[in-house]
Amino acid sequence: MTTSSPRFYALIYTSFAGIGLLLASVGIAGVAAHNVVRRTQEIGVRLALGGTAGRVVGMVARQALGPIVVAMIAGLAGSALLTTTLAQLLFDIKPHDPLTYAAVVALLGAVALVATWLPARRAARVNPIEVLRAE
User: Fold this and answer.
1) CA distances (Å), 119 to each of 18, 35, 46, 62, 111, in order?
2) pLDDT on residue 18
3) Structural domain boundaries of the chain?
4) In angstroms, what CA-CA distances link 106 with 36, 66, 101, 125?
5) Considering only CA atoms, which of 31, 37, 51 is closest in space to residue 128?
6) Average pLDDT of adjacent 10-residue blocks, the chain of 135 residues
7) Measured CA angle at 95 (ends 90, 97), to 5 deg
8) Cα angle vertex 108, ends 20, 123, to 5°?
9) Phi, psi angle pair for 30, to nearest 5°
10) Cα(48)–Cα(39) distance, rounded to whole angstroms?
11) pTM across the whole model
12) CB under 8 A, 24+ apart: contacts of 98-107
């Protein structure tokens, strides 16, 4: 009985975190896909002038990951400030555990990388001839 309430809260927090991670990944992928669609003509011209698919993927991923890195730094700072309020819910870890912070950054970075890689890969498959004809 003494652990049922903390377990329930942990389950609720984990559920909300999972839903938040899913929404963030869909949002990142949506914004990256929108940027690819908006810049399809530019990507087509780059490919027609000799740009490689790898460079296009790199360009799209860099532009999408820039704001994500800034947001992750802000999130780390905010979580470092607010972790003390949730300290009573943490079992067997300290509020400012560097391993936990590193694991969260790695997980969020991997999700962001996959979410930007899918639209970037789609951008690299643009047929330059069709894009230039549509202009």
Assistant:
1) 22, 9, 17, 12, 13
2) 93
3) 4-134
4) 25, 16, 9, 28
5) 51
6) 73 92 92 88 86 87 88 90 73 76 90 89 83 72
7) 110
8) 95
9) -65, -45
10) 14
11) 0.76
12) 101/76, 105/72, 105/76, 107/21
